[in-house]
């Protein structure tokens, strides 16, 4: 029986993850949101942080899908600085601007860390370990 | 001993030692190499097919507008066709949506 080389097995797992992570993130985020709405007693870290962690991969993937659709380019990658800029925008909006206007929102450093971890996950999934580059890097786009 | 690999050609049955190709008919005898080459070929064909696909109406509209003789039309098209503008606009819309869903 043919056995797979460990590195090849890892590559296959990464390919599968890269293809399916968006759907998995959406399902997980929606499940947590529905559980919260239904008043389920979720453990603290899941209740407070998992959706913040999933937020950036979901938002960035939706943006990437939209740009690919508008530009008719299935292989298009976002310029590398753009996901970071959008993450900083979300950090400022949800953790600095909104808490000043709305009682429902509180500024939390852990949330910022979760956004950044989500960004890192997106980078790993989309640009890979080999450091793929976007043809729009360094251009106005 | 571990470095010796005998491979039988599926086409003519020739057995070769430490060779990826048949010494008699030239066919690939290494299955892993064969699969790798097939994967690469499929990827190339997929890219070629994607390149031949005709861009849809939105892309054509913007690409025509980018070459319009009027500078204002060209500038507006350049602005709205920019990846940064598209991403920030969609990101802002989603942020607004999340704000209302959570609140």
In words, what does this structure look like?
The complex is a heterodimer of chains A (141) and B (103). Chain A is mainly alpha-helical and 141 residues long. Chain A has one domain. In chain A, helix 1 packs across helix 2. The radius of gyration of chain A is 18 Å and the shape is globular. With 103 residues, chain B is mostly helical. Chain B has two domains: 47 residues, no CATH class; 46 residues. Chain B has a two-stranded antiparallel sheet with strand order 1-2. In chain B, a hairpin with a 6-residue loop joins strand 1 and strand 2. Chain B is elongated and about 70 Å long. In chain B, 7% of the residues are buried. Chains A and B meet through helix 2 and helix 3 of A and helix 2 and helix 4 of B.
Task: Tell me the Rg of chain A in angstroms.
Answer: 18 Å
- Rounded average pLDDT of chain B: 88
Number of helices of chain B: 4
**Main beta-sheet annotation of chain A:** none
Helical/strand content category of chain B: mainly alpha
Summarize the structure.
The complex is a heterodimer of chains A (141) and B (103). Chain A has 141 residues and is an all-alpha fold.
Record keyword descriptors for this entry:
heterodimer; A: 141 residues; mainly alpha; 4 helices; 0% strand; globular; B: 103 residues; two-stranded antiparallel ribbon; 2 strands; elongated
What is this structure's SSE topology?
The complex is a heterodimer of chains A (141) and B (103).
Chain A: H1 6-37, H2 44-71, H3 81-101, H4 109-127
Chain B: E1 6-8, E2 15-17, H1 31-52, H2 57-66, H3 71-81, H4 83-102
Antiparallel strand pairs in B: 1-2
Helix pairs in contact in B: 2-3
């Amino acid at each position: 029986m043919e056995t797979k080389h460990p590195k090849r097995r890892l590559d296959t797992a990464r390919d599968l993850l890269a293809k399916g992570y968006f759907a998995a993130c959406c399902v997980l985020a929606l499940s947590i949101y529905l559980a919260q709405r239904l008043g389920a007693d979720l453990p603290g870290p899941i209740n407070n942080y998992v959706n913040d962690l999933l937020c950036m991969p979901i938002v960035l993937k939706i943006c990437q899908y939209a740009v690919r659709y508008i530009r008719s380019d299935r292989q298009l990658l976002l310029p590398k600085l753009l996901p970071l800029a959008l993450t900083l925008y979300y950090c400022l909006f949800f953790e600095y601007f909104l808490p000043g206007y709305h009682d429902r929102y509180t500024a939390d450093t852990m949330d910022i860390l979760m956004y950044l971890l989500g960004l890192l996950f997106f980078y790993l999934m989309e640009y890979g370990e080999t450091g793929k580059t976007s043809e729009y890097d360094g251009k106005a786009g | 001993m571990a470095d010796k690999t005998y491979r039988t050609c599926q086409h003519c049955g020739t057995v070769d030692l430490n060779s990826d190709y048949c010494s008699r008919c030239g066919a690939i005898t290494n299955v892993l190499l064969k699969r790798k080459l097939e994967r690469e070929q499929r990827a190339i064909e997929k890219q070629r097919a994607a390149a031949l696909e005709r861009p849809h109406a939105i892309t054509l509209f913007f690409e025509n507008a980018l070459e319009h003789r009027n500078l204002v039309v060209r500038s507006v098209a350049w602005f709205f066709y920019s990846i940064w503008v598209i991403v920030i606009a969609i990101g802002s819309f989603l942020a607004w949506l999340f704000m209302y869903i959570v609140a």
